[in-house]
Design goal:
2 copies of one chain form a homodimer. The first copy, chain A, is of the alpha/beta class. Chain A contains 8 helices and 7 strands. Chain A has helices spanning 6-16, 23-34, 38-54, 71-74, 89-98, 125-132, 148-161, 186-194, and strands at residues 56-57, 64-65, 79-86, 103-107, 139-142, 167-170, 197-198. In chain A, the strands form 2 sheets. The first copy, chain A, has a 5-stranded mixed beta sheet. The first copy, chain A, has a two-stranded antiparallel sheet with strand order 1-2. Chain A starts with 5 loop residues before the first helix and ends with a strand. In chain A, 36% of the residues are buried.
Amino acid sequence: MSSGIEALDILAEQFARLPGIGRKSAQRLALSLLEYSDEDIAAFTAAIGDAKAKIHRCPICENLTDREVCPICANPARDKSVICVVEDARAVMAFERVRSFSGVYHVLHGLISPMSGITPDTLTLRELLLRLQDETVKEVIVATGATTEGEATAMYIARLLSPLGIKVTRLAHGIPYGGELEYADEITLSRALEGRRDF
Amino acid sequence: MSSGIEALDILAEQFARLPGIGRKSAQRLALSLLEYSDEDIAAFTAAIGDAKAKIHRCPICENLTDREVCPICANPARDKSVICVVEDARAVMAFERVRSFSGVYHVLHGLISPMSGITPDTLTLRELLLRLQDETVKEVIVATGATTEGEATAMYIARLLSPLGIKVTRLAHGIPYGGELEYADEITLSRALEGRRDF
């Protein structure tokens, strides 16, 4: 959808690359930025640069953080013997909003999806296995979503961890099929956590 | 919706300021940018800065352009005697996609909306009146949307231009193409009836 204004089309293309933004929305977003003051434009681009520069993965759980170690791993009150394995940082945020989980996380940064070229070795499974060498871990809760990729990844992890003799559980079926964790309501999410079962 | 990561929350707030972006989408967009390479981040921020620096209003029609005068005003094939008055640059793009209008435009950059503090003097009506001092203009088509603000603005412009003796028209109102009568609302239907024409 060309506007006939090259700089506007380039900006709209940038917005259209973002998830969930169609071409018409992208053009609307690009046009709305043109109404910003120079200060607001500077604040927007600085926020992008800052986020990219300051945020990295926690060396323990692989969650995103702007600290050396993320606040959850650094919190002595969190139970280090229970690791909740999730797809991404958004899933961590969803669990943290519920406030019913006191363990720690491990962020996979993806789900196994051969169609999209996401194989087990592109996830943070090596890092998870390294964490499990420490004897403190008693339980791994595989909390991927109830999608095809989520369940395939959960099964893969269950098989991967079975020789280690650690209890591996998964969320109860309370999450509707096809539902993404981020959009689950708090009761559904905390019930799914409570009702977790052995593989 | 705090993520516990300050730089991420600041970026998500920036996205949430944009039109049509809710807080959850904003966080999703902010997170997606963290997966960009440094080059992609640089391309995104450069596109924002470039669009802001290069795009300004055409001194004739007030439409957005990156040239001195916009390509439509600069085109000798366009009929300068017919001016189509529209709300914003997106309306110009919509008309240009149809390719059935050969005149020129005048972009108001808003619609009268006392609730939002948009009064007639914040629109480009002064610039429109200046253009009409030139005797070449024979017709002004007021092409604002069929919303409360669009119609109030159209009525205001019609009254403003009536002393000038220039023909002022507005877009036809009626049943949209493909629209079934059964689903037309009462106002649309009664306008379609009022505006009936001979075959």
